[in-house]
Specification:
The chain is built from 6 helices and no strands. With 172 residues, it is an all-alpha fold.
């Protein structure tokens, strides 16, 4: 603790230290955020879970094999009479029609959903980590600049106590 008022050079020195620590802490946040969005990191850390997730995603993305049904003329006549429809017959040597392919919309929707969840989780983590860093820096700066402050008796004496009542700053 400081016994007297601080000089300008002491304040500059302390502010340089705070800036240096803030820079190092922000590099840590960026590093953690890059690791969080790097899929290779998850594969290295959780190989079996990654394999299971890839299998499930592949199962839902690959369309089912269509069944080819060949009917003779009597079966077609029976179906037509049952549904009261008409049919146009083609030659038996004609190439069979291919069933329509599944729309690529499901894969796109799943990707959009996963991307939204990942962004929300990343923003939550970055916000929580950043507020913890800033509050610790502010607490250390206020303790360093105030001469001989008594110990805080109650948690509501904190300069951020009002924020916890409104759900801010991530502090209890």
């Amino acid at each position: 603790m400081v016994d007297g008022p601080l000089t300008a050079s002491e304040i500059r020195t302390r502010m340089q230290g705070i800036r240096r620590d803030l820079n190092l802490d922000m590099h840590g946040v960026v590093s953690n955020a890059t690791d969080m969005f790097d899929w290779k990191n998850y594969v290295r850390t959780f190989p079996w879970t990654s394999l299971a997730v890839a299998g499930v995603v592949g199962y839902f993305l690959i369309p089912r094999r269509s069944k080819v049904v060949t009917l003779d003329k009597s079966a077609i006549d029976a179906l037509l009479q049952e549904h009261r429809s008409t049919a146009v017959f083609t030659s038996p040597n004609a190439a069979p029609r291919q069933p329509p392919q599944a729309a690529p919309g499901m894969a796109r929707e799943l990707f959009q959903l996963a991307k939204g969840v990942a962004i929300r989780v990343g923003m939550s983590y970055a916000t929580r980590y950043g507020t913890q860093i800033l509050s610790s820096l502010l607490d250390s700066a206020t303790q360093a600049s105030s001469p001989a402050t008594p110990e805080k008796e109650h948690p509501t004496d904190s300069p951020f106590a009002h924020a916890s009542r409104f759900g801010g700053f991530g502090r209890p």
